[in-house]
């Protein structure tokens, strides 16, 4: 079969490359219940899960291949494995697993410049992921030398980059994008724009990176992409449309009009529930001599807890130094008073003088699992191992699973909510309702004055907010809203604001140009 490449030749139409990308970057948390789990290797526990997954998936994919009359012309084997490369037998195993189940189309690998050499598999076409023309030169030299005369493909041309909490908003100049895309096409290479359309890490599904330090991704995956998170056009879109339009013999049709955005009236939350009050009606806690990490909690039919928060509670009778491994961020309380946080950098905290029996509570947030690099096996969340007070392990824990799924909020009956006091006890849930009189439109939420938490709209988890930025607004799609009554619940960890604002314009933070 032929992989189409894009070249500026008069009268030539553009070929479309359709890929099914089979990757295990989004690791299922239940795999980590196995203390010896080695992800993305031929470790038996992992390959058994891959085989089961492929048995179900390939039965659906195989009939859709081009040779069977379908649209699938190529299948990517894993993703950027060369940057991980823990097991030389793994990629050949994945290739065989695909072929044994009936995959007969072109197989591909995909790696950045650092992993390209190690990510290649014999008999599989290697492609490259890049952002600069210098990296393109690598493709033209290394791949041609290794593969000879083969189709060339930039599997991921990065049109921007994602953002991490506490960092800047990354952007890539549209002129640089056009120049690099032009160079890729002039080199006779096919190209895939990553991302063409920005997206959103709704709920708790954002990932994280951990090289020198742990950094979790923000809720927005706008990526400074060709189309924004809300689907709006950008300067990149206009320039690339004109460029790719030059391959066509006929004028391009006008693009669709952008969806309307709306600024709704500000909302003032009226009702509230302290987390400590919620504990009394969400069910019995799990009792354990030692802390249990999130994935190994005996919940969800034995599958553990995947996302959200987890609360550990025990009784102490003395002060001293509290120490332990908390993943990813734990707010420490004496009874209901916050005394600080534990995380990757802060592994110890001083417990001040106390009198008598005191509840020690640690509210731990899973901020997102690392999905790239060498730390993917270390993504168990909660308190990992023992928690120590003055180097003595604490015992007799009560553990609450706070996954904040829809079933969690179904226990919040109307009679449980109370009016917000002058000084609310935090962490807490805040509730407000509002009415939309016409057909709902896309909008953006702005939580100025609030510090850190999660927002739920009509029972769906919109995502996290945090005043350290860079993201300052959360994209709220119109289809999430109803004509008529709507409701918002905010879970705030630290400091509650007084109003929820809407805007028709996103603000993703201070820009930093990618070089």
Automatic annotation (TrEMBL):
It comes from the Eukaryota. One of its GO terms (biological process) is carbohydrate metabolic process. PROSITE patterns: GLYCOSYL_HYDROL_F35 (PS01182). Residues 427-486 form the Beta-galactosidase galactose-binding domain. The active site is at 80 (proton donor), 156 (nucleophile). Keywords: Glycosidase, Hydrolase. Pfam families: BetaGal_ABD_1 (PF21317), BetaGal_gal-bd (PF21467), Glyco_hydro_35 (PF01301). Residues 29-244 form the Glycoside hydrolase 35 catalytic domain. Residues 304-403 form the Beta-galactosidase 1-like first all-beta domain. GO terms for molecular function: beta-galactosidase activity. Belongs to the glycosyl hydrolase 35 family. This is Galactosidase beta 1 like 2. It comes from Spermophilus dauricus.
